[in-house]
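Q: Sequence in, structure out?
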Amino acid sequence: MKVLGIETSCDETGVAVFDTAIGGAAGLRAHAVYSQIALHAEYGGVVPELASRDHVRKLLPLIRQTLAEADLSTRDLDGVAYTAGPGLVGALLVGAGVARSLAWALDVPAIGVHHMEGHLLAPLMEDADPLLGPPQPPFVALLVSGGHTQLVAVDAIGVYRLLGETLDDAAGEAFDKTAKLMGLPYPGGPQLAALAEHGTPGAFRFPRPMTTRPGLDFSFSGLKTQVLLAWQGSDQSEATRADIARGFEDAVVDTLAIKCARALDATGCNTLVVAGGVGANTRLRAKLQADAQRRGGRVCFPRPALCTDNGAMIAFAGALRLEAGQSSDAAVHVTPRWDMATLPPLAAA
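A: Exactly. Output:
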């Protein structure tokens, strides 16, 4: 089954084709992402109306480009998957409208995909370990991005239990806001992580929020405040900026790692899957890989290009559900707020 995936939940336009007949990483026939970073940079954040308009401008050309790279035409498609939520309602409607129209014209099924399920399943597309293959449920998933920080018990595909989540800022949001308060350009998160590479470990040590109390929830707003106070009380030199960035990144990475270890202990699982934009952070990857090796367990990531929002994860997640006989009706439905626990389980094909 060849499935076109469309992602327009926020400020990236993503398109991909996944072929289930090939499967694995090779099943990703082509994918492309157009980022709106330059468009929103002057505003210091995503402007929803501008995001929607830019999706309208870029989506059809990106579909043509992706199909050409896959050496396919629209007539070769067997299904269409699109992000139906959560996300910005206007942006979601652009992708959903195009996807439903295309599916109707081709007389193929379409399915609305949960954005976070797309992230969660992205590592299952990879063949990173030739001996073990892709991770299989049950496992614990850390979904960590600009909009979400969640720990989820994955009992089966489509059977999810929320173990813990952020009570305020998501980890990626904390990266962006911390970078902004120290004067780094938009988008700040990647800039801060790059700056931290030049910082001195331990020069600034910030608290590891909510790690001294039981539970699996997160909180990063207080950490952001601590960084602000440290920055305002410093000489604000470039060296100090790098040292503070390193201290902040270490605090976030340690906090995420501590909570992941607790979640694995609580569920009795030994496999951790990490997805979302912050999953591309090299220090987080190294820390979780070292922890997994020490525990005798396993941690799985998608390739860095598939950590951020992309059409490949939507095509893959949609293909799994379409092959299982699930599809959406002909109406254009989006769900800006959508609890992943309400998703139906993946039925047998």
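The chain has two domains: 2-122+306-342, 136-301.
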